Give the backbone structure.
Amino acid sequence: MSTATLAEPLSRAKQLKASTHTAHEKIDKLVMRHEPFQSLESYGHFLRLQHVFHGALEPVYLNENLNNLLPGLSQLNRFPAVEADLNDLEMPIPPSPEAAAIGSAYQALGWLYCSEGSNLGAAILFKHTRQLNLHETHGARHLAAHEDGRALHWRAFVQQLDALELTEEQDQEVIAGARAAFDFYRDQLHRVYGEVA
Ligand code: HEM
C-alpha cells in the first residue's frame, strides 16, 4: 500500500485567508501609514473609516436569514460601538453609511469573514489606543475583545462558517465577497484620507 498521503483540502476559512492574504497585507500597511494612533485627531479619521465599514455591514449582521445560518451573528455587530467611540471623544457622528452593495447571501459570508477577521488584528490596534488613554469603555470600545476572548470568538465563527454546506460555485461567491470587502475598505480608506489631505 502506498504511504503517500493526499494533501487535505483547505477549510473554507483557510481558503479565504489564502485568497485575501495580499489584500490584507496592503490594507494593514495603508492603515498604519496614516499613523492612526499618533494623535486623537488622526484616531478620529480612523474612526470615521471604521464607521463607514461597520455601518455598511450592519444590515448584514442584522439580516434574519444570515442569523439563522450563523446563530448569534447580530451580537457581533460592532457599528454601535464605533458610534459610541465617536461619542466618547465628542466627535461628530457622520450620517449612517449606505448598506454595502452585496450580490448574494454567499458573498455576504465573505464580507463577514473580512469583518470578523479584522477583530483579530484589532488586538494590536487596541494596544496602540492605550497611548491615547483610550480603553474598552472609552473611545476604543469597537476594538476591544469580546468578553469570551478574541480567539475563542473567532474560532466559534470559523467553525460556523466551515460547517456550512455549500456548492463549489457558492464557495467561489464567498471568496468574491471577501475580496470585495477588502476592496471596499481600501476604497473608503482612500476616500476618508483624501478628504483630510
Ligand atoms: C493596521 C491594521 C491591521 C493590522 C495590524 C492587522 C493585523 C492582523 C493580524 C496580526 C492578524 C492575525 C491575527 C491572528 O492570527 O491571531 C489579522 C487577521 C485578520 N485581519 Fe487584520 N489587521 C489590520 C487591519 C485589518 C482590516 C482593516 C481588515 C479588514 C477590512 C482586516 C482583516 C483581517 C482578517 C480577515 C483576518 C483573519 C485572517 C485569518 O483568516 O486568519 N485586518 N490581522
